[in-house]
Design brief:
This protein is α+β, with helices and mostly antiparallel strands. The chain folds into 2 domains: 130 residues, Roll (Diaminopimelate Epimerase, Chain A, domain 1); 162 residues, Roll (Diaminopimelate Epimerase, Chain A, domain 1), CATH 3.10.310. The protein has 6 helices and 18 strands. The chain has an 18-stranded mixed sheet that branches. Helix 3 packs antiparallel against helix 5.
């Protein structure tokens, strides 16, 4: 029998019960895949992160991510939560930790200020799939409960990724965004066809003056009907915006703020920073706050 320390963290917020909740097991050594999946299912967050000691000289630790139904390669909000829990539990100073994930070893920066922390996550390699053909586009639009006239014609409907792919769907209106009622069965069926589980619907029609984007993310195929605030949607979105010249920037970098989770009553915010080379996206980083909701232990 071993006692495992478990945190419940709300990421991308400093207000409890807002933002995106994630479980974190900070001392996961000894847990097997079945047990990690069982813990993730019991906590019932969209993702739970499990932190292990380093397994090589090239990393400061290993981190794995489970939804209630499946392991996923990387997760934005659970990374913010995991690094926040680690910083709190070890009373860390500002530092960079190189953590091994299923998409490689990534640097995560912990900033300490006034006895609290902000976390910056460097995401994985940027990639884009070709825009979908008209038939698939129409199926996605219909499954989301949208009409063709709702779509922002400047925004191709395609898959973008920085380690965990999402379909990007730009629409014209915040009102339409908050009125969405997707057909989860149809979205799940489409996921099998297109090889992507997440659908990120976003708009430039943001209601907060300091935000560029409002968004909502749906991934019913992996047990997440809607995710409150999604690092692995907004990171790829930043690369997508640069790639398609949808924003004005200085050719070297672009930073913007997003709001997500409003419809769910879990509003959260994150900053997205895109580094550019020859006016194309080269690297993406997301930054967010976090807050501890509770800390407990599980003996297995």
């Amino acid at each position: 029998m071993k006692k495992f320390t478990v945190y419940q963290i709300d990421a991308f917020t400093k207000e409890k019960f807002k933002g995106n909740p994630a479980g974190v097991v900070i001392n996961a050594t000894g847990l097997d895949d079945t047990q990690m999946l069982a813990i993730a299912r019991e906590l019932n967050n969209s993702e739970t992160a499990f932190i292990f000691p380093p397994d090589n000289k090239d990393n400061d630790g290993v981190i794995r991510y489970f939804t209630p139904t499946v392991e996923v390669p990387i997760c934005g909000h659970a990374t913010i939560a995991a690094m926040y829990a680690k910083a709190i539990s070890e009373n860390l100073d500002s530092c960079v930790l190189r953590m091994k994930t299923k998409v490689g070893v990534l640097p995560f920066t912990i900033y300490k200020k006034d006895d609290d922390y902000k976390i910056e996550m460097t995401q994985g390699a940027i990639s884009f799939e070709p825009p979908f053909n008209k038939k698939i586009q129409q199926q996605i639009i219909a499954a989301l409960g949208l009409k063709s006239t709702d779509i922002d014609e400047k925004c191709p409907i395609q898959i973008a990724s920085t380690g965990h792919s999402k379909v990007m769907i730009g629409i014209k209106s915040n009102k339409t965004l908050n009125a969405l009622k997707p057909n989860n069965n149809k979205l799940s069926g489409l996921s099998k066809i297109i090889g992507c589980n997440g659908y990120y619907v976003f708009t430039f029609d943001a209601t907060d003056k300091d935000c560029l984007i409002d968004g909502r993310m749906f991934a019913p195929a992996i047990g997440i009907n809607e995710d409150p605030v999604t690092g692995n949607a907004n990171g790829p979105l930043g690369a997508y915006l640069i790639h398609h010249e949808l924003v004005t920037h200085n050719g070297k970098e672009f930073t913007f703020k997003i709001k997500q989770g409003e419809k769910m009553g879990r509003t959260g915010y994150m900053n997205v920073h895109v580094t550019c080379v020859y006016n194309q996206p080269k690297q993406v980083q997301i930054t967010g706050n976090a807050v501890v909701v509770f800390k407990t232990s599980i003996t297995i």
